[in-house]
Amino acid sequence: MKKKSSSSVARVKQKRLSPEDRRQEFVRKATEFFSEEGFNGGTRELARRLGVTQPLLYRYFPSKEELVKEVYRKVYLEPLDTGWEKLLTNRSRPIRERLLQFYDAYTNVIFTRKWLRIYLFSGLKGLDINRWYVGVVRDKILTRIIKECRFEFGLPTQAKPTASEIEMAWVFHGGVFYYGVRRYIYEMPDIQDKEEMIANAIDGYLAGFARASAKDAKRPAAKSNRLNAAAAR
Amino acid sequence: MKKKSSSSVARVKQKRLSPEDRRQEFVRKATEFFSEEGFNGGTRELARRLGVTQPLLYRYFPSKEELVKEVYRKVYLEPLDTGWEKLLTNRSRPIRERLLQFYDAYTNVIFTRKWLRIYLFSGLKGLDINRWYVGVVRDKILTRIIKECRFEFGLPTQAKPTASEIEMAWVFHGGVFYYGVRRYIYEMPDIQDKEEMIANAIDGYLAGFARASAKDAKRPAAKSNRLNAAAAR
DNA sequence: TTTTTATTTTATCAACCGATAAATAACGCC
DNA sequence: GGCGTTATTTATCGGTTGATAAAATAAAAA
């Protein structure tokens, strides 16, 4: 064992962080820990990886649950404050380019083992923050994509997205998402480059969107609005 | 409390099952339990839901882990012995119809809260049986779909699926899968009928497949075989 | 250096976990 | 019915969990 390193000799680092910085360091490392072990991981093992003793955690967090909540908050808010919303609405560029750039940026944030695992763990718990996040994806991302696609294909953009449109966007988005799961959670070998996969997925989605629009143009809007009716009651 | 009901009076049910049947009943109920609580659920709570005491479990299973393994086996093998393979290869019917019927049948099996949750729980654990299952989906289902699509579009069917083809099929399949997650795990409201979603997803996939085939026909096979090269080393 | 304050550790608690042994209850058979 | 066998329960073990109080240490202030 080393000596105590009390004042001057051999003191290389470890200045002593501000309480808030130290707290954030704990949250950061706890995120890594819980992403691997799940939220049933013990506080003793977590403390060991932090290089401290277990009761110290309770100086910075009133309970394990509070620490876990802070991990959630950090993980779920991380992908949302990257200002990608303008990226989708820039109509000076074709929709395909915008989608390519957006999904490249978005997946650069969420396609990590850490993020995906915490997302799935909390999803299995049925947490409110998970439902909130999924709602944000639908209302901010998918709804925007649908509107921009309509514009690209010369369709009216005011009306709310139909159930079919949302569901098709979800299938596309979920398909892309599932690539991350296969790669970073299942760790499947021999997987295609992310960029190629995204390009293929986008082309497939746009082809499907064009096809569906053409079909809907023949017989006007009906049937696919079962959802709005249900939501209006 | 009731009386003991030893021989004849007021005996309505509860005949006493054979050891194997009782064991299977335990496995069945344990599947429900672990699907909700996760595999960290306690044996005492499980026994309570079974209406028995906790040590009794150890008469039927040597350890909790063995019980859990049997739950895995049952859940993972369930969707595979439904003989849907012939369904995909019946070339007297158009591929769209076959895909519709297959995915209707397949999702009828896996789109339950129970199945999806156990699948995700075990996936997060990185279990071998999970990786095995994902490999089966790729090699038996997706590869077959690709081959049948090639046939439908008048392309040669012998060559192994390219990386792009597999990845596109995965995005499609994962998109459908993610519908189940949204519905039965996230429990999102106002969701489209499963059949409509599947039909839309299939049409989108086929449109994308046609588009990709047309593009590949211009410049011959190259680039998209990076995977085979990687697998051959 | 001495005093004060903030940080970290040691020791410990009650509750819960998976698992085992021994005692009891229920059944099938004669 | 009584007897032997199987199924089930009661009681209990050692280990681990999240959490608390008090002692000890390190840093900062004087």
* CATH C-level class of the largest domain in chain A: Mainly Alpha
What's the total number of strands of chain A?
A: 0
Oligomer state equals homodimer
End-to-end Cα distance of chain A, whole Å, is 70 Å
Main sheet record of chain A = none
Give start-end ranges of low-pLDDT stretches of chain A. 1-14, 221-233
CATH architecture of the largest domain in chain A: Orthogonal Bundle
How many helices of chain A in DSSP terms? Answer: 11
| Overall radius of gyration of chain A | 23 Å
Descriptive overview:
The structure is a homodimer of 233-residue chains. Chain A has 233 residues and is mostly helical. Chain A folds into two domains: 19-74, Orthogonal Bundle (Arc Repressor Mutant, subunit A); 82-220, Tetracycline Repressor, domain 2 (Orthogonal Bundle). Chain A is built from eleven helices and no strands. In chain A, α1 (19-37) packs across α4, α6 crosses α10 and α8 packs across α9 (163-184). The longest helix of chain A has 25 residues, at 128-152. At the A-B interface, α7, α8, α9, α10 and α11 of A face α7, α8, α9, α10 and α11 of B. Chain B binds a DNA duplex (30 and 30 nucleotides) through loops.
